[in-house]
Specification:
With 281 residues, this protein is an alpha+beta fold. It contains four helices and twelve strands, in the order βββββββββββααβαα. The chain is extended, with a radius of gyration of 27 Å. The chain starts with 10 loop residues before the first strand and ends with a helix.
Amino acid sequence: MPSRRSGRRGTAVRPRRTGPGGSRPRPLAAPAGTAVVRRPFTAGLGDVAGEEVVVTVRARDPGSGPQARGKQAVRYADHDCHYTRVTGIWQTVWPEPVPEVHLRRPRITPDLAGSAFPLELPLSGDRPGHRVRAVLGDGEVSRAEARADLDLAQGDPFVDSHEDGTASSQPYRGQPYFVSEFGGIWWDPEAAAGQSGEDRTVSWGHGERVRDEEEFHARFGGLTDVLLGDRGMFGYCYTQLTDVFQERSGIHRFDRGPELDVGRVRAAQLRPAAIEEQDRT
């Protein structure tokens, strides 16, 4: 019976089956060894299908090494721009039997303007004549069908695959770009008024801490002007809206209280961007 496991943390998997007379379970011949996975997986149980099978899933959460941890601290306590650790797996683990061709994890993207939500539903394989049907419930609000016997996903996005098996990434050719993070200006009124203003264990931000609010607005305006003046930049995201624990780089305090003159922050961003002016001409 194939099994699937949904989760993000590293997981060790060792299928086992019960020996004759309820003796101690012994390892299966296939698959052998231990596999470390960080996404749903399928394990074929081969010649043991139909027997009583025990699948053991072990989840380990090491405190070091590369893993998708977001901004969780590697150390025990908060530090720099990293916050309280959350240990353990983040989703339920479950097994389910599936046929050779089965549905994989779907993706729904809301489209409010179009009064729709496109559905992407990958399959484990193609089979001639197969179709996928999606029905929106609560009675039947909507229904859609699509062919499921075409394989159009050849290669990876933005990667050229060559006949000799090599691959090369697509070069940048002046496409408009989005700045996913900028700013992080270290502004901490309390630290600025005290003698421990440079102590990064209790107050942290990017770069040198500004000495007062005027210096913050000068730096924010300068950074924003650079982005708005770039003809290739079509959008940006400022870090960050609020302070978070010891990271003091927010426009508002951690409790959402006012920390800066938000009107001046807004005014610095009102002029048209260069890419907008370019479109008008």
